[in-house]
Amino acid sequence: MTFIGLMILGVALATWAGITVGETLKARRAGVRPRRSAARRAAWGAVLAYLLGGALHLYGLSYMSFLQPEDACWFKAGHMAVPDSSSALPVSLVCAGEEIVPWWVNPGLLLLALAAVGLTVASPVLAVRNRRR
Questions:
Q1: pLDDT at 6
Q2: Alpha helices of 1-133 — where are they, by DSSP H?
Q3: Distance between CA 28 and CA 23 in Å, rounded?
Q4: In this structure, which long-range contacts are made by residues 91-95, counting pairs with CB atoms below 8 Å and at least 24 apart in sequence?
Q5: pTM of the entire structure?
Q6: Does an H or E element contain 83, and which?
Q7: Angle of CA points 64, 61, 88, to nearest 5°
Q8: CA angle 94, 95, 98 (to 5 degrees)
Q9: For residue 89, what is the DSSP state?
Q10: pLDDT band at 1 (very low <50, low <70, confident <90, very high)
């Protein structure tokens, strides 16, 4: 899947989670106390995973300098040179053969992405299953 495809998938899944959570909030404002179902918990978990994943990605991107590439190596590794390579996904910045971004950023992004997708898919499945009962 391409980067654009992943971005479209992320926006679509985030929209679905937002709609689910929005309906819950609307029902609460109307005075209806929705049951605490597994579908609602999955939707809230998906929203949390999206927010944490976005924050972690921004943290990883903070290691890169977008205006002056050599500044990223200077401030993060102490080398005044242009980076050997850099990428936004997976988050990577290599200066003088050394990876600057912490090792746990990309596995954390993967875990949060899997959790967000899994919970977003689980939420409507659980909602449909609960309605059939």
A1: 60
A2: 3-29, 38-61, 69-77, 105-132
A3: 9
A4: 91/57, 91/60, 91/61, 91/63, 93/63, 93/64
A5: 0.71
A6: none
A7: 90
A8: 70
A9: T
A10: very low
Are 109 and 90 in contact by the 8 Å Cβ rule? The answer is: yes
The Cα 52–Cα 114 span in angstroms is 12
- Other beta carbons within 10 angstroms of residue 71's beta carbon come to 14
| Residues constituting the chain | 133
Count of C-beta atoms within a 10 Å radius of residue 20: 20
Helix (H) or strand (E) holding 85: strand 85-88
| Whether 38 contacts 124, CB under 8 Å | no
Tens-digit pLDDT profile for residues 79-97: 777 888 888 888 898 988 8
Token pair 């590794």 is found at 77
How far is 130 from 132, CA to CA, in rounded Å?
Answer: 5
Pairing of strands 98-99, 91-95: antiparallel
Q: Are 73 and 67 in contact (CB under 8 A)?
A: no
Q: With contact defined as beta carbons under 8 Å apart, do 17 and 120 qualify?
A: yes
